[in-house]
Design brief:
4 copies of one chain form a homotetramer. Chain A is α/β, with parallel strands linked by helices. In chain A, 28% of the residues lie in helices and 20% in strands. Chain A contains 10 helices and 13 strands. Chains A and B meet through strand 7, strand 8, strand 9, strand 10 and strand 12 of A and strand 7, strand 8, strand 9, strand 10 and strand 12 of B.
Chain lengths: 340, 340, 340, 340
């Protein structure tokens, strides 16, 4: 009998994307897709057309896994309920991403809703946390921007490719689905279409998360809003350590991700683009010498590898399933970079 | 009697934009809008609907000023003809932007077409070259990316706000009109819409121009292609000199541009966006502290301040007219940043 | 001394467009741009950057003309106040478009807010109401869809080109600015971008307005929402009267609009497109034989000829000014159709 | 052993979409994805990343089915070769859509390339040709516009819902992928983005195909180009027969498509939208009373149900497979209309 999961918050972008993925999963049953709040829309944002039910925490006891796609603050109490009911939990909110309750409070402007659960949670950047995730009961699914930045950056930092004292610039650009499904000035067509701007400069909530996982606060993160629906492209720039160039950095990434199905490192020359990663769980990465700096370009789908797809990778591991189930591209292999 | 000008290359994006501006200019007559090549389209890209005539260099003698909106290589011989005919010239191509014929050859893959004219030409970043432009006969109109980068950067470099040894990252994003009006893989709707990518990484032809004018090759320039038609937003990141922060940098820019009608420096907080500068000749600039770096955001319309508008500023000066004629916003004053 | 006008509701799309037009008007002073409601945004949607003030009806007495850009229902009481203060009024809302208070109530679900003013108002489809507008004190500015449909249709109906008993299909497509500036499901980027749909099928509030002015209810009006910001393209289809074809219909339109600066009738072949009319006050029209029907294509900018531009035409007439002041294209002549 | 197929023309939009579908098909092997011409791009438009090989007709003998995704004129000789090699053929070009070689020549400006094969071919509007397709060897896959128009129209014509003498208007709107992958003025971003226009008015090559299958030339077909990548929405308008209204028409369609997995008839009220059908093989249909006419709205993905998806339906039948294999939505059931 296949394991059963349920989704809380299935009407938003990430939850709806997740419902679509679980619907197509060969070894998981979607027991329920629930609204997080009574006033949430009655239908998902897409692509799943499954009817969405009211929140019913009593049903947490009937499933093996619970996905939480709620705003921060709302997820932690639901996570506790689910854990007490015996379910494994992947939380797509920010509630368990920061290891430090005080930093959470400084960042989110409210006391951490469940500080006692912080130690039990694992930060689920899957490629770098596989062993911990397998034995965890509560996984904090990484933010979309941090995933796009940390996947290329962690191996380069570990290998000493980055100059030890220099700033690391993470100039990121995201489609507007990252701003959520709620109508607002930010998501109004007239403010997005044919427009482009930076936002949250010096103050975005993903900054502490990036610093925490990278182990350094030398990273300057500046997000921008693209006039498209889905995808993040992050351009990283940093002075290399002595003796390091793009070729060295590419070698480090090649080795780190040689056997990873969801990270593709480009050969010298071409660069990732959003179209190549949209609706896939793959992160594409390229490295370039640009005068005084190394420039790393990283692209992923913020709703898949940056949210629902990575969450499913983590749930697969939590439930003892093959990590790639339900996430392979149609051809059964990860996408390759196609354009120069 | 008002001075007369003509435009060569009036069917492309920049030339057509320029035709529209000159049509609305209160003190210039547009004597002719000419095709650069026999096979160019018979109608402008917009907004002008003026009929475009074949190239006729004999008519250069009848006008006071000639705008050259041709590919690089084709402009220089036309510039010579126009100068010999007694006209002032603003060249929107790259032919006279680089001061060094050898660097031109290395960058554009062909010998410089008129090296003897290089000394007579002036690099027309108007706000920083006003006096030279007034007395020049041949102005090299700056590239769109360089304009967006140099306007904020030059005063900061001059004032010592930038750390002396550190890299300066110029992460730029442009609408697709920068790629020109010719159909190609690059400009195909299916490759631009809902897409985003870096291009020319480490190899874009505007890099030597930026280095030359800034007086340093520590600038790492990485351009990206936005899924919109017009506008450039450049995000600059650099380690500040000791004692310098965003407030200091903003003060430097405020002072540099206090009396400039076409550069708007934002107060602390808001950031420029493309919509605020599209179809204006204004460059909007903001400065931010972002952890270890200062981040400067600069936005302009690549077809106006980055091409046709700045060319008209320069032509106004060449012909002894008020610099802002034909370029004011409807309200008679430069746009102000509007959104936070 | 130039006449003075003020705008109520200057923060929405139409009001903001109007503020930009009046700012550039050579013979009108914009005395004030006011918010319609205390909670309206403090800044206009663009392009004007003029500061917007609170509503102050006392100032109606200081101006010659008042533009009302408010929701229906809110305009009528303001119109009364303005008329009593001696100002001429152009109302861009729906309050005075329908001549019959009962039809207004059936359409808008509330009693007409000022039925006694209906007789004093003129329906300002300028090209067809010039004489009445000149002597009026209150002008109902037509809806954007009706303008795009009635400009081509009225002369064809009058000339008997349309088959007397057959349905007239008005299949219209509008950019999303027609849905207003308020954030909503309808205007959310994710629901507009890369999407297209019909809406209000059989129930749109512009239907009674179209029927009233055309003098027939044989018109089937079906609006659609385009994934772009501004512009309406209406495609009309009807069986022609005996002996009538596209050539006859084109002749009728050519004659009707031969001297009209803001209506351009195309020769046989090319069709209008949104880009040719965006940010102009011109309506472009073409006529085609398509098997059993005549097809008429009409394009205009919903915010200019469909709202603010036509309102300014009307105000010019109300105040005894040249009708085209402030509305000419840069070249001083109406746009011509450019592409085949 | 699963049947094997190959695709000729796998680099264009339709061929590439088809390669992606066959890659994910549980009971078909994709033996080869071939270029149609030596100078075709080396990589598919997406989503498949499979390497594309040169055309090699010798391999037609090794497969059970051949998909032809070539320009018209080029398909017919390849079809002959494939049939002689013993393969079943689905031709996505126009070569076998018209039953009459003279009409083909009048429409496509060249003699029919294989008139002797016309009688052997079947027009594969699957829902209306299932029995013939099952026993055919050569299927002409319908055009994208005709599919969107004929699926709703055929049952209504057969049931006598349409007034017998009145025109039927088919006002269709398509994303730009319908114009193909080749760079051109038509597909240039600057001519599509933020634009909308009618084209081929009175002269589109799909008109004879629509007339032939509907059995009447009373249909006025007018296509328009949408500023989005994929999807067709057709709005049909016609006077109903006496006693017929939307409710009657909806009943006819409900009955016709009650057991069809790929046609969804909406209840009264909501209308289809492109987002609901993009990347699915489903056609959504709604019916409305609009004054003197019935209005039918039909939406499908031009690259799936309008091309590759329907081609796969047909190939499934040709090869004796379950018709829906490889075409189901993730949830295993057709999409339902979601928004009102």
């Amino acid at each position: 009998m296949t394991p059963a999961v349920l989704i809380v918050g299935a009407t938003g972008y990430a939850g709806s994307e997740l419902a679509g993925l679980v619907d197509g999963h060969p070894a998981l049953t979607l027991a329920a897709a629930m609204r997080a709040r009574p006033d949430a829309p009655a239908v998902p944002a897409g692509p799943s057309t499954r009817a969405v039910e009211p929140l019913d925490v009593a049903r947490f006891a009937d499933v093996d896994g619970v996905f939480l796609c709620t705003p921060h603050g709302a997820a932690a109490p639901l996570a506790r309920t689910a854990l007490e009911a015996g379910a494994r939990v992947v939380d797509l909110s920010a509630d368990f991403r920061l290891r430090d309750a005080a930093l959470y409070e400084a960042t989110y402007g409210a006391p951490h809703p469940a500080p006692d659960l912080l130690d039990a949670s694992v930060y689920g950047l899957t490629e770098h946390a596989r062993a911990e995730v397998r034995t965890a009961r509560l996984v904090a699914n990484p933010g979309c921007y941090p995933t796009s930045i940390l996947l290329p950056l962690l191996p380069l930092l570990a290998a000493g490719v980055v100059h030890a004292d220099a700033p690391i610039v993470a100039d990121s650009k995201s489609g507007v689905s990252g701003a959520g499904r709620a109508p607002s000035e930010v998501t109004h067509f007239g403010n997005v279409h044919d427009n482009f701007r930076a936002y949250g400069v010096g103050a975005h909530r993903h900054t502490p998360e990036i610093h925490q996982v990278a182990g350094t606060d030398r990273i300057a993160f500046v997000p921008h809003l693209l006039p498209c629906e889905r995808g993040i492209l992050s351009t990283l720039h940093f002075a290399p350590a002595a003796g390091c160039d793009a070729s060295v950095a590419r070698g480090v990434l090649d080795e780190a991700y040689a056997h990873e199905p969801f990270v593709t490192v480009y050969p010298a020359g071409p660069t990732p683009e959003l179209r190549a990663v949209q609706r896939t769980n793959t992160c594409h990465v390229s490295v370039h010498d640009v005068g005084p700096v190394l420039t790393v370009v990283s692209a992923l789908d913020n709703l898949v590898k940056g949210a629902a797809g990575q969450a499913l990778q983590n749930m697969n591991l939590l439930l003892g399933l093959e990590e790639t189930l339900g996430l392979r591209s149609p051809a059964g292999e990860p996408e390759q970079g196609k354009r120069s």
